[in-house]
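Supplementary material to the annual report.
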Amino acid sequence: MRRLVAALPLMWLGLFFLVPFLVLLRISVSEPAIAQPPYLPLFEWADGLLTMTLNLGNYIFLAEDPLYLFSYLSSLKIAAVSTLIALLLGYPMAYAIARAPTGRRNLLLMLVILPFWTSFLLRVYAWIGLLKANGLVNNVLLWLGVIDQPLVILQTDFAVYLGIVYTYLPFMILPLYATLSKMDGDLLEAAADLGARPAVTFLTVTLPLSMPGVLAGSMLVFIPAVGEYVIPALLGGPGTLMIGSVLWNEFFLNRDWPVAAAVAIVMVLVLALPITLLRRIQAQEES
Amino acid sequence: MLRAITLLGFAFLYAPILSLVIYSFNESRLVTVWSGFSTRWYAELLQDDQILGAAWISIKVATLSATLATVLGTLAALALIRHGRFRGRPALGGLVTAPLVMPEVIIGLSLLLLFVAMDNLIGWPAGRGVLTIVIAHATFGTAFATVVVQARMVSLDRALEDAAQDLGAHPLRVFFDITLPGLAPALISAWLLAFTLSLDDVVIASFVAGPGASTLPMVIFSKVRLGVSPEVNALATLMIATVSILVLAASFRSWRR
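Predicted assembly:
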């Protein structure tokens, strides 16, 4: 009985989350074939022996074609810049919410969480209407006389940054809020009593104490952003290189499953470091 | 300064949603040119069989997967919070947090490869469709449900359960009479969260759906890739209205307590 409680979720997640990674790993070293499914059989019986051919060709292919390297680097750059912008916008918001009186604090927190409950796809889609050449943003800017030609915003990297920051901002704010609201107000008062200016207090007391929130929030934005597919597909242009889109195209357009699997494995390796960092922060927070 | 940034931040979060709602009542097909109030896109939406059919599939998938995820998530939370140290604990702890941050393209591709390999090996799941989407959604839903239920379980008073057990109640009875009612608000949140996430997922579903079944987000995605569509705005408004009413009602109830 007691065993079953842990065993059921363990078995489910093992079978449908862990085992798929092993399959992914296996297929990333198999040979592509024009077949259904499009790779050579994973195991073969020959002379009563079960043999498994490993083929590193897909990884060599990834290393030789600069498209892949550029896509990984560009994804990391786009994710890092978006994370930084989300931090610069999210930190003051989390700070203001943590300092707000209790009644208003709950309302503001709900306002941060509410967009998370509404469709992510539709919220990203909303930006198409805002950003396109005859969209709301351009119309307002034209009307204000700031510009006399509509700006090209949609289908640029800028629109992708905007979309990522917009989508993941709540993930940045919530962990920041969690650390900032737990902070001991006496420390700030003590610093002020001892003559520290607000800026100094912030840099020497508040910011260092909120570092777990900064790191957790940043990782929660950065990790999914690296593999993002929908945002570059809807808001990015032909020049926007992101590894999530490369994987998608390898799979759906080129139907090269083994190469898509290799792209995914390399992505997991790239993300292993930030994921470990996040887990470590979360474990520390728990204890 | 702080106030200005906060206001700007909230405007940034809500302006796009607001624009969707406003333009859903626009007469013109050109979504951004206002030409008068009209509800014609709602009427067209209700006659669009492709969208309605996909919506029905999505609701089925979301209901089934959210229910599975809530059950599995509750069991996982129970094991993690109440069972102390046991052999599978580190593995379970890792497995419930990993799907939370793993990029969707990786989850989708790896699950699809598993389904294809299993189909070849043991003939199950035969082909791909609603069943495979339900399994996929239940898997990442479990991770989110565990987090929600765990948070509530930590704050639950154990003394009540201990008392019931001391008075001779069977562990199952303790669970159903004491633990479960105490967890009820979290179970509802967990179910709703898993339901919403399932109803919203386009990437994982696209990988595991196969040609037969298209969920609502898949249909929306293929429509909006071709540009803005007033019908999608109307659909978005209906979905946003439903969610807002539910969330407002839920928080109003918790405030009154």
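The first helix of chain A runs from residue 2 to 28.
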